[in-house]
């Protein structure tokens, strides 16, 4: 049951991928991991894997684990390939919805060992009635470093909050980057909270990718194309980006600078072999007007076949399908 082209853990549980970084001639991947478990648990660790080609991954030792200061090490990001900064969500076991953003730094050049930095990285806003906060994503927006964090408000509004920094050290709250209400259904519903918000430049526009969450359930991935105006993201369009197993999209630039996404694939497992969870192959982002289009990364494009007007990647128990409109691959797990 273990696929050849889709990353799976040697053993244990895996969900969200993040922090894909091209550094010193190879890629680093970090991911949510529960060693010794075949089901999700609050006590998430940060796993680590490396690859030369974005397809074949070699798992490394766990780099972050819960301790007395945090009950779970949840999703985040890695920035600054020259020095290395991890920004992650620390959660309490009895109240995981409202996390705090924490930082870790590498203790060696191989990135196999990291040390947590004491203290919360960003101050929480006191003007919002937050019921959910997690999953920092950090980028340079051309003016300053910007951290985007997923959130949910008590009135059912899903939001992305942002902070800015000149040096990745001190962070200033910049307000609500953008938000949508639970009642907003046209052209797509985007839930009551956003997980794993990813903001990146694609061609001449900004794209915001969010994982839609509501009532304790992971739903699907949505995307907006728009403009970054000061500290606000002004969407020109919204769309559903995935169907099926894809969730928790993570954005990165490959070795050639292409904007890419990788996803968690839900429901892929071999319980008898002792592992649960997988990651998608990398997808490349493009634009068709104000619509996001996804296609297989060149690293796997030669392994795809045409099925009518769809592009299909078959890899053992996983089938990724890129529809004719280019919107993110449908995933089947036969």
Overview of this protein structure:
With 334 residues, this protein is mainly β. The protein has a single domain (12-332), classed as Tachylectin-2, Chain A, CATH 2.115.10.20. It has 1 helix and 25 strands. The longest helix is centred in the C-terminal third of the chain and has 4 residues, at 298-301. The mean pLDDT is 94.
- CATH top level is Mainly Beta
Shape descriptor = globular
Whole-number tally of structural domains: 1
Element pattern in H and E: EEEEEEEEEEEEEEEEEEEEEHEEEE
Structural class: mainly beta
Major beta-sheet overview: 9 strands, mixed
Fourth-tier CATH superfamily name: Glycosyl hydrolase domain, family 43
| Distance between the amino and carboxyl termini | 10 Å
Low-pLDDT runs of 5+ residues are none
Rg, rounded, reads 18 Å
Considering DSSP H and I runs of 4 or more, what fraction of the residues is helical?
A: under 10%
Number of helices: 1
User: Overall mean pLDDT score?
Assistant: 94
According to CATH, the fold-level topology is Tachylectin-2, Chain A
What is the CATH architecture assignment? Answer: 5 Propeller
Give the number of DSSP strands: 25
* Quaternary structure state of the chains depicted: single chain
Content of β-strand: over 45%
């Amino acid at each position: 049951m273990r696929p050849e082209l889709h990353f799976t853990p040697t053993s244990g549980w895996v969900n969200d991928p993040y922090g894909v970084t091209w550094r010193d001639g190879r890629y680093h991947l970090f991911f949510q991991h529960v060693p010794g478990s075949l089901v999700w648990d609050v006590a998430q660790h940060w796993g680590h894997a490396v690859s030369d080609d974005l397809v074949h991954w070699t798992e490394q030792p766990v780099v972050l684990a819960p301790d007395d200061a945090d009950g779970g090490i949840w999703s985040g990001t890695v920035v600054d390939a020259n020095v290395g900064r991890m920004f992650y969500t620390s959660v309490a076991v009895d109240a995981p919805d409202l996390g705090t953003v924490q930082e870790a730094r590498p203790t060696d050049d191989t990135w196999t060992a990291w040390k947590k930095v004491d203290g919360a990285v960003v101050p929480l806003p006191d003007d919002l009635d937050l019921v959910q906060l997690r999953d920092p994503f950090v980028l340079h927006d051309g003016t300053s470093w910007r951290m985007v964090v997923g959130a949910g408000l008590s009135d059912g509004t899903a939001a992305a909050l942002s902070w800015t920094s000149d040096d990745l050290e001190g962070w200033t709250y910049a307000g609500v980057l953008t938000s949508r209400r639970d009642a907003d259904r046209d052209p797509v519903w985007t839930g009551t909270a956003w997980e794993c918000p990813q903001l990146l430049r694609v061609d001449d526009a900004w794209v915001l990718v969010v994982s839609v969450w509501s009532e304790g359930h992971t739903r699907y991935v949505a995307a907006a194309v728009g403009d970054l105006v000061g500290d606000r993201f002004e969407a020109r369009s919204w769309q559903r980006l995935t169907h099926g197993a894809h969730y928790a999209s993570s954005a990165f630039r490959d070795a050639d600078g292409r904007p890419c996404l990788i996803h968690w694939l839900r429901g892929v497992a071999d319980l008898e072999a002792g592992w649960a969870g997988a990651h998608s192959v990398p997808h490349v982002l493009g634009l068709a007007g104000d619509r996001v289009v996804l296609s297989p990364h060149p690293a796997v494009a030669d392994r795809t076949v045409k099925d009518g007007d769809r592009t299909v990647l078959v890899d053992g128990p996983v089938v990724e399908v890129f529809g004719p409109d280019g919107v993110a691959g449908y995933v089947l797990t036969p």
